[in-house]
Amino acid sequence: MKVTTAVLALSLALPFAASAQDSIAVMSNEYPNTYSSGSANVYPFTQDSKRFNDWAISAGVGVPLVQTAELNSIKFTENGGKTVFGYSAYLSIDKAITHAFGLKLQYDRGETRQGWFNTKNADATAAAPIGGRTQYDALSLLGDINLSNLLRRVDNKSPYRWALHAYAGIGTLGFRNYIEDENGQRLTGEVDPLTLGSFMFQGGTGLKYRLNNRLDAEARLMYIYTGDDEFDGIVQPSDKSDNFFNATLGLTYNIGKHQSHLFWHDPLQEIYYKLDVLAEKNQDIEVCKAGDNDNDGVCDDWDRQLDTPAGARVDGAGVALDTDLDGVIDLYDKCVTVPGPVENDGCPTSGPMNGGVVTDDTRTLEGIEFDLNSDRILPSNTPILNNAINYINSTPGAYRVVGGTDTRASDAYNQNLSQRRANTVKNYLVQKGVSSGKLEAVGRGEKDLKYAECDPATKCPEWKNRANRRVYFEAK
């Protein structure tokens, strides 16, 4: 299957490879910030091109338990065990740097409680146990490793709702401790933060569950190494550090306008999904089961233009290339890189292309397509929208900007997504100089399919579903 997929991807690229150099020259001139690698255009990463949220706020509460100290929270003896519980809370600002690594700036506050459970004799009648409590504040910088994204198999297509994280980092720890015995309670020690000896280390793991696109729940267990022998309130002549566990339950709120957070995305799965879509178009690339009637090198099974003129260069979907998007394919276009009307063989005239009045005979409004679950305008669609700007500004009528989707999600979700797509295109046109009064953004969800037979989406090849994910224009 991997060999077949690779051959298929290569075959889809070959039909338009000959036109790549011409296209690159045009694209580089049209988009001055576009950089060419010689075979493809690479667009700069900007704030608008981001697809995922990468900031979050986390908060939680829990129970700290002192484990290695003279006074412990947990003590097991021959007669049984005893535990004294404290309380803790944390608040952090989280930044995902990649899908597998991030940073946390975390503030912890709490109180540990501990006791000296060993008494002077077995029946515990000769002396009362000593009790202690420590109030602490900590500020830490933690590294966050998404182990699930590192260990998850790329062919695992199950819903991604659980994630195992590992945390480790350093910080500063300030505390005040108290001892209570038969003489009453007294303050025995105090350490200010950001002083020599107040630095500590903490590390642990957390299990996250994705409640929805905005909220995650997490159970976390951390181990705090204080590096201080006085944390429990007892000073003994030893070099032992008083350390404790902190078990917490918390929530994470993902900040941003995008649908998903970067930590819930695995780029390898996305790549393999796209390759699977290509592979499903034809299980056997060596044979075109439905033939290639127009001899354009693209099998009729996924050819979107079955009557391509002989000699025309085509893209991977079998559609004749139109480099300048003027409606005249390159085979018949005498000005391949400059838009022009059909009646002038694709070359500019003294009419509309040079500032004259644009009419229905020389220019038509075209629609644009969108990526799956996205309302982002692709850079390749800006020439089409710029043509629409010229047309709308030169005509007196008003227009509807109509958004649509495929049928993959629910009706309500698709309705919202289609409205967002229509709003995005309308806002783009308004920013480029079109009067907002001439435009009305309308979302029609999956009720206005270009290919009505694609319900459900699994009945159609991917190019038909993509054609349904569109925005187009209609006169009011």
What is this entry, summarized?
With 476 residues, this protein is an alpha+beta fold.
Describe this structure in words.
Pfam families: OmpA. Its main location: membrane. It is found in: Cell outer membrane. This is OmpA family protein. There is one protein chain. Among the domains are: 55-264, Porin (Beta Barrel), CATH 2.40.160; 364-476, 2-Layer Sandwich (60s Ribosomal Protein L30, Chain: A), CATH 3.30.1330. The chain has an eight-stranded antiparallel barrel with strand order 3-6-7-8-9-11-12-13. Strands 14-17-15-16 form a four-stranded mixed sheet. The chain has a two-stranded antiparallel sheet with strand order 1-2. It has helices at residues 2-13, 20-30, 147-151, 267-281, 382-393, 411-431, 462-468; strands spanning 35-36, 41-42, 55-68, 74-77, 80-83, 87-96, 101-115, 131-146, 162-181, 184-191, 199-210, 215-225, 243-255, 368-369, 399-403, 439-443, 470-475. Mean pLDDT is 78; it is low at 1-40, 118-128 and 350-363. The protein is elongated, with a radius of gyration of 33 Å. By secondary structure, it is of the alpha+beta class.
Key attributes of the depicted protein:
Porin, alpha+beta, eight-stranded antiparallel β-barrel, 476 residues, 60s Ribosomal Protein L30, Chain: A, cell outer membrane
